[in-house]
Each structure stands twice: as structure tokens, then as C-alpha cells.
């Protein structure tokens, strides 16, 4: 059977199974009934044939019975007549006599060719027989009645069985609904109150569906405990990162201050000491940046709200790209901006950081001479901010928005990237209810930040100019 014709749902399989069982039962019972009816009709016909050998009562005359009336003469020669319903008596043909001559004593069914089958009995030298037509007609009538009853029964089972199976599977539907609601919960982040459970009336361990419902409830309980443990662990880690980052700011500021004081001292400092203090100040600055990034991520993870106001993205793009031109003079920087200012609601400092990190990522991980294009477009109530470069692309399988994610040698690490820049981009954009995505092939990498337009922004489509 083709897979397209096979029933897929449990309801359909059960109904079809009931239909097959009902049809099989009808076939078996009908077959037995047909055989019993045929046996009864044959025995009745044998009784009628045996009556042909008895002489008619005195004074009773009538037409000879329909059928075969023959005698066995000297030497075994058979002579006699045969009469069919609606016909006249005629003499037996040679073929018919030969067929009768081969019969042993007793009652037997013989096929006489064109005239059909006869039930024939031999007593002494006399042969009597009656046509089997009543037996065949009665048998076929019984068969057609059984066929009609089987079809009607199958239709009735299909209708009634569908209702019965549907009602029987209602508890299973409730179990499936519970599983569906659980599958739609955001289990991947934050604190999850997994309160969904299968109703108690569908958790009877003495029924098949109840066993499934009870097992699902137990599984949901284990999952709920695991999610709570995961959330508690995440909160402890986030609190630790926030506390550690906050506490590290003070000693790092002191290290930078003393290093800068040494550099500004009027007294001569040996070159080796000056170099060492310069490195201390440089590393302190880099560590301070790392601590600030970790502290920002911890605050965003904690769900702290950002500032919200009208942000002119067009002006912001001009400013940040201008800074990037100064920092990366060996790259080609291009702009694709619409004619009208593009406004969004958000935190201007954080959005500045988002674009700065994207441009810094493009500058850091592409070779000199790479063209980096920053574009803005508005459509369907959304603003798309894109940063595209024609560098070597992102290594396949690298999750760039994961924290501390770094590429291989195909994307230069000369600047000593911490791997937090793009994770900050994703966290800040998420805090603005936006989305960030990347599409990369060798020779073209595009980061797209999608934000909702600000209230003062008109709903229109703008093309880069």
C-alpha cells in the first residue's frame, strides 16, 4: 500500500481496524451460513429425489415429475427421459446416459452439460434426479444478502466507530494540548513557571491514556525543577559577574592612575620602567573595557531598562562612521542613507555602541583595503541598519553572537578582540525589542540590525540615496 493511502492518525487507524474486524467477522459468519444453507438445500433435494422412487397413492394420477426418469436395462444400457422446467420431456442423449452410467449407487451431483447440474440417486435399476437450480438460487440469494449486510455493517461501524473512537481519544487530545502549550513556552531563557499539567481525570494509571498523562506530568515536574535550578545558577553567575565587574573598576582605576602619574612625573624614569608602566597602563585600559562590557551584559541580562528617547539614526551613523574613518584609515568606508532622517525610539548611547562594535568588528577582522558599507532603510514600520564588508567572511559554524566567540586565522585577531563585541550588540538590540542577524559568504558579510521606527517616523519606504 502506498504511504499516501495509509492512515496516519490513531483515530483513523482504530476506525479502519474496527471496519476490517467487522468485515472479517461478517465474511466468516456468512461463509458458515452459506455452507449450512447449501447443505440444508441439498439434503432437502435428496429427500425430494427419494420420494420419486415411491409409487403414487392409489387413485392419484398426475403429470410425471420434472427431472430425470431412467432405468438400467440388460447389459447396463440406460434409457429414459429428462424434463426441464418450462420444457417438454425428451430422451436422454448419449452424453447424458454416459454421465449417469458412471455414477455409483446413492445420491450424487452430476453435471450434464448444457442442462446443468442434477442431484441424482440410483435404487436398483431405477435412476431419478432433480435439477440443482433451487439449491444454486437459494445459495446465491443468501450470498447477496450477506454482501449487502456486510456493506451496511461496515458503513455503520465506520459511522458509529468514528464517534466512539473520538470520544475515547478525548483524554489523549487533552494530553496533546498540554504538551503543545508547554512546547510554546520560552524555556530557553529567564525564569520559567512551568505550571502546565495534564488534568487529574486524565492521569489514571489504570488506563493507557492515563499512564501517558501521568508520565507527562512527572516529566514536566522534573523539567520544571531543572529549569528552576538552571535559572538559579544563571542568576548566581550573573550576580557574581556583576559584583566582580563592579569591584574591579576601583582597583583598575587606581592602577591606571598610578601608571599615568608615573608617566607624567618630572623626574627621569629609566626607559625599561617607562616601557613597563606604559604596558601596565595599556593593559589596564583594555581590562577596564572588558570589565565595562561584562558589567553591561550583566545589567542587560538582569533586564534593567534602557533609556528611551528619539534617536536620529542618520546623524548617529554619520558620527560613528566618521570616527571609524579616523581609526581605520586603511579601509574604505561608504554610506548608503535615505534622504529623510531616520528616527527610532531607544537609548542613543547604547545604539552608538552597537554601530561602533559592528564597525570595529569589520575593521578588526578584515584586511586593509576592505570596503565597509553602512546603510539605513525603512520599510513596513521597521528600520534596517546594515554593515557590509567584502572581506574573507566568517568561518562556517562560528556562532558570532555567543560570548567570547572568536574566529580562526581567516579573520585577523591583531587587535586582541575579547569576543564580547557582537554579544553586546545582540543584547542591546534585544533590549530594544529588535533583531540582529548575519549573512556571510566569502567576499561579502552583512550584519543587519532591525528596529521599530520611532513615533515621529513616518510609515514609508525609503531607498538608500
What does this structure look like?
By secondary structure, this protein is an alpha+beta fold. 50% of the residues lie in helices and 17% in strands. The protein is built from nine helices and 13 strands. The strands form three sheets. A six-stranded antiparallel sheet has the order 3-2-1-6-5-4, sandwiched between helices. Strands 8-10-11-13-12 form a five-stranded mixed sheet. The longest helix has 57 residues, at 208-264. The chain is rod-shaped, with a radius of gyration of 49 Å.
Write the layout of secondary structure elements.
Layout: H1 10-51, E1 67-72, E2 78-83, E3 90-91, H2 94-101, E4 106-111, E5 117-123, E6 126-131, H3 133-168, H4 170-183, H5 208-264, H6 271-301, E7 309-312, H7 313-327, E8 332-336, E9 343-346, H8 348-364, E10 371-379, E11 382-389, H9 421-431, E12 435-441, E13 444-452
Parallel strand pairs: 8-10
Antiparallel strand pairs: 1-2, 1-6, 2-3, 4-5, 5-6, 7-9, 10-11, 11-13, 12-13
Helix pairs in contact: 1-3, 4-5, 5-6, 6-9, 7-8, 8-9
Give me a quick take on this structure.
The chain is α+β, with helices and mostly antiparallel strands and 465 residues long.
Q: Key features?
A:
about 475 residues, about 50% helix, five-stranded mixed β-sheet, rod-shaped
Largest sheet: 6 strands, antiparallel
For the record, give the distance between the C-alpha atoms at the N and C termini, rounded to a whole number.
61 Å
**Approximate strand percentage:** 15-25%
Backbone structural class: alpha+beta
| Overall spatial form | rod-shaped
The average pLDDT is 81
Instruction: State the helicity in percent bands.
Output: 40-55%
The largest sheet has its strands arranged as 3-2-1-6-5-4
What's the total count of β strands?
13
Count of helical stretches? 9
Helices and strands, in order, run as HEEEHEEEHHHHEHEEHEEHEE
Amino acid at each position: 500500500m502506498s504511504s499516501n493511502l495509509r492512515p496516519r492518525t490513531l483515530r483513523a487507524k482504530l476506525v479502519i481496524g474496527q471496519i476490517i474486524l467487522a468485515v472479517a467477522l461478517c465474511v466468516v459468519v456468512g461463509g458458515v451460513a452459506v455452507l449450512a444453507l447449501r447443505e440444508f438445500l441439498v439434503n432437502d433435494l435428496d429427500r425430494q429425489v427419494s420420494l420419486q422412487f415411491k409409487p403414487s397413492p392409489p387413485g392419484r394420477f398426475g403429470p410425471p415429475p420434472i427431472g430425470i426418469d431412467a432405468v438400467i436395462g440388460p447389459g447396463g444400457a440406460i434409457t429414459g427421459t429428462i424434463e426441464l422446467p418450462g420444457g417438454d420431456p425428451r430422451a436422454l442423449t448419449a452424453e447424458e446416459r454416459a454421465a449417469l452410467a458412471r455414477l455409483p449407487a446413492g445420491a450424487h451431483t452430476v453435471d450434464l452439460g448444457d442442462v446443468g447440474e442434477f442431484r441424482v440417486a440410483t435404487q436398483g435399476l431405477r435412476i431419478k434426479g432433480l435439477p440443482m437450480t433451487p439449491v444454486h438460487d437459494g445459495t446465491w440469494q443468501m450470498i447477496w444478502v450477506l454482501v449487502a449486510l456486510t456493506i451496511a455493517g461496515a458503513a455503520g461501524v465506520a459511522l458509529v466507530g468514528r464517534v466512539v473512537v473520538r470520544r475515547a481519544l478525548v483524554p489523549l487530545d487533552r494530553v496533546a494540548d498540554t504538551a503543545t502549550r508547554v512546547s510554546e513556552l520560552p524555556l530557553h531563557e529567564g525564569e520559567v513557571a512551568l505550571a502546565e499539567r495534564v488534568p487529574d481525570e486524565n492521569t489514571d494509571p489504570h488506563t493507557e491514556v492515563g499512564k501517558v498523562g501521568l508520565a507527562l506530568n512527572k516529566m514536566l515536574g522534573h523539567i520544571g525543577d531543572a529549569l528552576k535550578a538552571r535559572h538559579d545558577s544563571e542568576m548566581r553567575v550573573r550576580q557574581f559577574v556583576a559584583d566582580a565587574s563592579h569591584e574591579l573598576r576601583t582597583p583598575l582605576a587606581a592602577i591606571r592612575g598610578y601608571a599615568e602619574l608615573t608617566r607624567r612625573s618630572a623626574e627621569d624614569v629609566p626607559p625599561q620602567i617607562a616601557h613597563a608602566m606604559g604596558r601596565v597602563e595599556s593593559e589596564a585600559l583594555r581590562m577596564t573595557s572588558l570589565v565595562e562590557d561584562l558589567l553591561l551584559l550583566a545589567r542587560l541580562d538582569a533586564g534593567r531598562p534602557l533609556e528611551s528617547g528619539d534617536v536620529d539614526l542618520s546623524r548617529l551613523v554619520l558620527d560613528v562612521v566618521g570616527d571609524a574613518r579616523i581609526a581605520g584609515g586603511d579601509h574604505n568606508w561608504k554610506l548608503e542613507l535615505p534622504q529623510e532622517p531616520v528616527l527610532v525610539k531607544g537609548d542613543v548611547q547604547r545604539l552608538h555602541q552597537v554601530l561602533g562594535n559592528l564597525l570595529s568588528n569589520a575593521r578588526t577582522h578584515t584586511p586593509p583595503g576592505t570596503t565597509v558599507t553602512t546603510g539605513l532603510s525603512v520599510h513596513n514600520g521597521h528600520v534596517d541598519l546594515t554593515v557590509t564588508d567584502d572581506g574573507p567572511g566568517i568561518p562556517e559554524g562560528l556562532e558570532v553572537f555567543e560570548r567570547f566567540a572568536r574566529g580562526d586565522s581567516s579573520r585577523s585577531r591583531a587587535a586582541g578582540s575579547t569576543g564580547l563585541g557582537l554579544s553586546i550588540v545582540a543584547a542591546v538590540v534585544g533590549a530594544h525589542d529588535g533583531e540582529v542577524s548575519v549573512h556571510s559568504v566569502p567576499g561579502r558579510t552583512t550584519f543587519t540590525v532591525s528596529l521599530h521606527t520611532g513615533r515621529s517616523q513616518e510609515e514609508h519606504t525609503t531607498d538608500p540615496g
